[in-house]
Amino acid sequence: MRGLYVHVPFCVKKCSYCDFYSVPAQNGLVDLYIQALMVECHSYLGLSFDTLYVGGGTPSLLGADNLIRLIDGLHHAFDLSDLVEATVEVNPESATVRLLEAAKASGINRISVGVQSLSQQELEKVGRVHTAVQAIEVVGRAKKLGFRTVSADLMIGLPGQKWEMLRASLEALISLGIDHLSLYCLSLEHGTPLALDPPADLPSDDMQADLFDRASQFLDRHAFVHYEISNFALGGHECLHNLNYWRGGEYLGLGPAAASHLGGRRFRNRSDLHAYFDTPAHFVEDVEELKIKDKAAEEAMLRLRLLSEGLNPNDLVKRFGQENVNGLVGRLNEMARVGDLLFDGLSYRLAPSKVLTSNWIFTRVLFD
Amino acid sequence: MENIRNFCIIAHIDHGKSTLADRILELTGVMPTISNEQVLDSMDLERERGITIKAKSVRIPYKSRNGKDYILNLIDTPGHVDFNYEVSRSLKACEGAILLVDASQGVEAQTIANAYLAIEAGLEIIPVINKIDLTSAMIEECRLQLEELLDIPGEDVLLISGRKGTGVIDLLEAVVARMPPPGSSNEEPLRCLIFDSYYDAYRGVIPHIRVFSGSLGPGAKIMVKSTGKIFEVEEVGYFSPQLTPGNILKAGDVGYFGASIKDVGTIHVGDTIISPDHPQTPTIEGFRQSQPMVFCGIYPIDSSDYGKLTMALEKFRLNDSSIAYEKESSAALGHGYRLGFLGMLHMEITLERLKREYGQELIATMPSVVYKVVLTNGEAQMIDNPSKFPEPQYIDHIEEPIIMARIIVPEDYVGPCMELSESRRGKFINMEHSSRRRTLLTYHFPLAEIIAGYYDKLKSVSRGYAGMDYDFVGYRADDLVKVDILIKDNKVDALSFIANRSSAVTRGRALVQKLRKLVPRHQFEIPIQAAIGKKIVAREDIAPIRKDVIAKCYGGDITRKRKLLEKQKEGKKRMKMVGSVEVPQEAFLLLLRMEQ
């Protein structure tokens, strides 16, 4: 499996919690961006990919014509003939009928809608530019157009959030027919407006944990499988592109701030759109090539995120060799002994009660 | 020798000692223009706090109105009760003392304590009322207090303003006229007292000495009486006030010498210096040895700094011989030292100086006194560290040090001061109305109460007017218990404390509550408990953490996530492990600060 990720670094307006790279989509920037992207593609000409994910930022801000241009360009540069999944992230305010139709026509079969909440109050408090009604309309529209999978993002821990509101959002999305849900806990990222001036009604970590647990149980009752720490899906609708991340697979990231994993190296593009225009083909920074033992530990950490699939140590042995996995397996066994991991004789899994406190476990998986 | 006068200024804290010293230096031309106030208070800490910690001396050439030239050696002394040993040492080097009283404050506890020390040392005392330029000056009242409390004839008292210089020359004339010259002889064998010393990176130990007999110059061989170590003198000189080399120090002189003494352990303040040719020369007696009363553990924040701390302490002790220290280790804090201090201010100042002068970041444990623990087999142990206490079943009874406190307080505040004293286990001894508005209260206190903040409380209930001085009187048994603090079943040795049974539970509970706020939540529940023996007397639980997810692996940026986890892991290295619980260093630091 190899995935292709394209980062579209435009947003109408930055949400108050967000520290990902994006800039306002001013006149002309989108054109320059697509031109630069095409130049960057040339550095990797001829690679084949199994999944495509156009994320952001706000890819729907590109508009129908530019989206078609972008996807056509990718087809030109790469071998996408075996593509099994192609996702575009959209935001409710810009996911017009035309845009969704254009996506469908370009072979996109998965739409991910940045809903975040269906409470108008919560949306306004974190500076989202769309309304709850718009979000409902877009999810309905995507369903109607017949995308194979329609996914929604929801946030836990928005200011003033109560379980009743969260449940109402979940209920509405399920009744609209979504097949996949990403549930993220709001975190105060350094330097964001929300972190600089956190509102008094921001749910505490304990309240977030409560909300998450209840949402998880609710989704379970509606046949959604908690297959990854932040992701829930109906059977067969798991996101293949993301599964590839957690299984230690290869992927190429294009565009500013996009991350890649190719040939055993992890690297990332710089987070600077204007510099990207100048040298799109030489934009990599932060190249990381781990020692083999560390690489094995990293993959173990990633695979433990897969709550139902888990980590089969034989997969690691095959890939990295027994001698590079021994110490790691020792650590995993110790964690299984104290109940932080579950072991069924074949695979290790994160215990359901440890999902929200997994960092502590991951730290011990990664480091001696 | 007839023209030498060795004297010091003694006073209660803040009564203007250092300002007077500045003025004397200025008026005698030693320091032509004094740009910075209080020349002799050379430590930053002294300037900041407005107090003198270390004794210092300066040589002042003075032409008297009688036409003769004199050498005045002024030895500055600290005022605070904790530094009495410095005072007694300085007094030993003098023939006279200026007793300074602030005209607006009157006679205070330390005025009396220091005056007694000077009288005991047989010094000629010149009583002086200072700050007479203040509108709040009560000159006649002060004169009366000196008469009533210290039997000093009112007509002997001089009036000055150290700030404005009024009466300062008259005072120097009185020093020349009333104080005797040193009764020493150049012919007798060498005999000097080391009254201070410090370490110079190039010249080694520089002892400050008063020559009682004989003389000393470069090339001379000297012997440290107590250790028998012999050195060759390389340099002698005077303080003016910086070190100024000279040819010879004669009987009666005050000065310094350098002899390339690199090992700080070979020579101590209080030692007698003699000539190796006359090894039988007697030691200079009467030097009041300091007795550490308050102890605490100190630990480097970063345990790899232990070696640096050791060196810092060795050098520090040279400068302040009253510090007692020995190695100690704590399960919670690692390797460190147990230090003995003369009192709380001494402790505070020492820790601050260690930090500043030696660049040491330190954790100090809660201060403790020395307990006498009498075991069931009749054996008595002196224990200065609560964590070293025997198990309760082996203890017959515990005795604690008792001090006699003399408290001087304006009449209006006698009530609150007595109430406070009763609540701190004080035993009333005596009350004396020594002038119309001053009352001298005498109490016996457990020293433990004094170090637990009695003095600060006394100041606050008297609106700052009460002053206090104390002396050790002996040991007394009381119902004392050791309280242990447990973090998830593990004893934190550094937090154990001894308390009277009646207050042990309250203090234990308060400590547990504070600790609960300082220990971070973990993946498991952490009980924090206070225990007397096996009995739990207070408990608080820290609920397990429920969410720690950092940084979503958005867009496959695994490296960022990995680095964040690595950083988190690095952060844990700065934690102290108490069993399976990680406690940040800062938690101990904050807790111990709060306790103090």
Given the structure, what is the number of helices of chain A? Answer: 14
Query: What's the gyration radius of chain A in Å?
Result: 21 Å
Subunit organisation of the chains: heterodimer
Regions with little confidence, pLDDT below 50 for 5+ residues of chain A: none
Rg on CA atoms of chain B, Å:
27 Å
Percentage of β-strand residues of chain B: 25-35%
**What percent strand of chain A?**
15-25%
How many strand elements of chain A? 16
The name of the CATH architecture of the largest domain in chain A is: Alpha-Beta Horseshoe
What fold name goes in the CATH topology slot of the largest domain in chain A? pyruvate-formate lyase- activating enzyme
How far the N terminus sits from the C terminus of chain A, by CA atoms, comes to: 30 Å
Distance between the termini of chain B: 50 Å
Q: Please state the overall shape of chain B, judged from the principal axes of the Cα atoms.
A: globular
Widest sheet: strand ordering of chain A? 9-10-8-7-6-5-4-1-11
Description:
The complex is a heterodimer of chains A (368) and B (596). Chain A is 40% helix and 21% strand. Chain A is of the alpha/beta class and 368 residues long. Chain A has two domains: 2-244, tm_1862 like domain (pyruvate-formate lyase- activating enzyme, Alpha-Beta Horseshoe), CATH 3.80.30; 309-368, no CATH class. In chain A, a hairpin with a 2-residue loop joins strand 12 and strand 13 (265-269). In chain A, helix 6 (163-176) runs parallel beside helix 8 and helix 13 (326-337) runs antiparallel to helix 14. Chain B has 596 residues and is an alpha+beta fold. Helix content of chain B is 27%, strand content 33%. Chain B contains 13 helices and 31 strands. In chain B, the strands form six sheets. Chain B has an eight-stranded antiparallel sheet. A six-stranded mixed sheet of chain B has the order 2-3-1-4-5-6, with helices on both faces. In chain B, a hairpin with a 2-residue loop joins strand 30 (575-578) and strand 31. The two termini of chain B are 50 Å apart. Mean pLDDT of chain B is 84; it is low at 49-55. The chains are: A alpha/beta (368), B alpha+beta (596). The A-B interface holds A 3, 5, 7, 20, 55, 184-185, 187, 205-206, 208-210, 212, 229-230, 245, 251, 253, 257-261, 266, 268, 286, 288, 298, 301-302, 305, 340, 354, 356-360, 362-363, 366-367 and B 523, 543, 545-560, 562, 565-566, 568-569.
